[in-house]
Design goal:
Four copies of one chain form a homotetramer.
Chain A (H helix, E strand, L loop, with lengths): L5 H22 L2 H8 L3 H7 L3 H24 L8 H21 L1 H12 L6 H24 L8 H22 L5 H15 L6
Helix pairs in contact in A: 1-2, 1-4, 1-6, 4-5, 4-7, 5-9, 6-7, 7-8, 8-9
Chain A binds a DNA duplex (21 and 21 nucleotides) through helix 3.
DNA sequence: TATGAATGAGGGTTCATTCAT
DNA sequence: CATGAATGAACCCTCATTCAT
């Protein structure tokens, strides 16, 4: 897919990310991308087979990274043999997810918006991803319940709550209201989740 | 805007809602709408100035209704002089919001997806709406805190949490995983929120 | 396929025939066709799904007609119970084929050239058509042989000779050297074929 | 035109012949040719000024060869002072032409298809060539007529018949139905032509 | 000379919108 | 008001050709 000049490829990807973030996939014209990248129309097609391909290329990189980190990290979200340890792990998880998102803010926004947006290329991929993440969280909630630290009537529903809190917070505070103190947000988010799950304090 | 035959207008709106929900705004062609409505291409423009206008028309109706009910209802979300009363009001609020959504599921989905979706016509409108709702919730949280029933370090952030929980739950359980028991969901949602806000039980 | 205004459709077909004949399918641009037809670019697509479709449309009409007449007529090419009758039938067949071709000269040329031309849309169709015609002729030659009027070592090869003579003559005298006396040509062609097949004169 | 490395030039020509035969001139991309030849895009233009030039180069070589042999050989097609000698010469001519064609089958096919195909680069060249060949044949027919061995009302028309028989047979039996016994074909072709021209047997 | 990245003029097709009937 | 044919501005993508290295 990717052509031979890494500089040109990077320009194209950079321009595409900017344009997709600004106008969305559909409204972004290839001519927008190439003119921002400073190359000709034809050059685009030396690097990517189509407008859709560059989009997938951009998303796939991010998805792979997020998925890997999310899976690794989520395994430890409610780890611990005391309320203190559990809280520490929740905080660490939130921190790491914030970092991943902040380092990939533009792409995260593209994926998020195109994933939810109707007719978006990623509707299915996005909703599958959602299910995977929610299942992962549910498993961890179940472990916490088994160990007697957490309480819930339905771990599946709780998992959706937790995922929704993460995602909405990331969306709102990173993309819409950008001036929030992330440290405070992190503490409150951990607190809200753990209270919601009735963490038995030490 | 609207032409004189309410039947034709309703057909067009109905068809547009169906198509927008199915394919999204961008991918829906005016020809899709008119052929589903059983009228000619030209007739469309006797009723709506453009494809965008029928979209706004559809959304505005829903927004007005939701906004009105949301505002009315939200004023009472944490009302009450006891934990029991507060919980009752939270449950009632959730119930009513669920009903509004379910009665307008198609339009709700359109607005939600197009509002978040990048390049969506409603990016701004949607994000303004979000702010309005979040502010409303924040005010109620503040009241609850003042009255000594609720606790939070930052009512604004809590409001985002609450709104996120509502919206994500509605999205996920009404649109993605459609077979959830809404009564259980409602109870758990109320419980999660109230625990998260440290409701002082009677 | 065809749109609703027969006048516009006819203009488009007429223009397409002219352009295809002049420049060939590949080099003819849709814009050539519409500008010659005096309609806009978009109008073309109200009548034909694609450039290829109008081409097929044009060819199919001619093919159907030729095939029908050819099949009907060929059944009688070597009919007769005397050399005189057979010769009369061969002459009549040639006449009729000449007429069909002359009445559809432009389309015939298009089909002929695009059929033979490599990469032409009709390579396969054309070669199938060829086989059908040659088989038809072979059957008639076989009948003539059985009845003892004609002689050949291999009716299949003779059929190819006959078809080749027809086609090459039509091509050369109708399209390349246009000033030939068709009556003389017809007589000579019949004579050549019948001598080639050793018609036993009465 | 041609660059300095005969190996590279030959690779390009070989690849071009293969591709032109397979896909036709228009549908063959320069990139097809260079990738089959194993050289870079730019190298192509060190050897040939354009796609059209390599095509002409290929055709011209073949045309020169065919024309030379055809002219030499055709001078003797109806040579001889007896029916037996004439027949022998016709057979020999057919044999030689078959050999030339079979040794250059790919190029022959290209020239034939592109020459007839509409918009082909060689429409004019091809039709001139045709006229030259037909004139050559006509002259020989006239000689045969003068010597009293052959009979025809119009040597020009007979020449077209003869050329048509050659060409169509070559096309059909070498390119379409490839499993014909060429010896039988040769004998029948000679026989058909000579009967058609009323060769006075000894 | 060989390379192959860059070029950019077009071409086919779509579809929201207009307007004469 | 209803119709639906006509419009034409875009937009994605192709590919022959160039040129700096």
């Amino acid at each position: 897919m990717a052509g031979p000049d890494p500089g040109t490829e990077a320009s194209l990807i950079g321009a595409a990310v900017t344009m997709f973030q600004e106008k969305g996939f559909q409204k972004t014209r290839v001519s927008d991308v190439v003119s921002m990248a400073g190359v000709s129309q034809g050059t685009f097609y030396n690097y990517f087979k189509s407008k859709e391909e560059i989009f997938r290329h951009i998303c796939n990189g991010f998805i792979a990274e997020v998925q890997k980190l999310f899976i690794e990290r989520t395994e430890h979200i409610f780890d611990g043999d005391s309320a203190t340890e559990i809280r520490k792990n929740v905080l660490a998880t939130i921190d790491e997810l914030f970092v991943i998102y902040m380092e990939n803010l533009a792409v995260a926004e593209i994926l998020f918006r195109e994933g939810i947006g109707n007719g978006g290329l990623f509707k299915e991929i996005y909703e599958d991803l959602l299910s995977i993440f929610i299942d992962l969280i549910r498993e961890q909630v179940e472990k916490g319940v088994e160990k007697g630290f957490l309480t819930t009537d339905d771990p599946g529903i709780s998992a959706v709550f937790i995922f929704g809190l993460f995602e909405r917070s990331l969306f709102y505070f990173l993309l819409v209201r950008r001036n929030t103190d992330l440290k405070v947000l992190r503490d409150m988010l951990a607190d809200f989740i753990l209270k919601g799950l009735s963490l038995k304090e030490d």
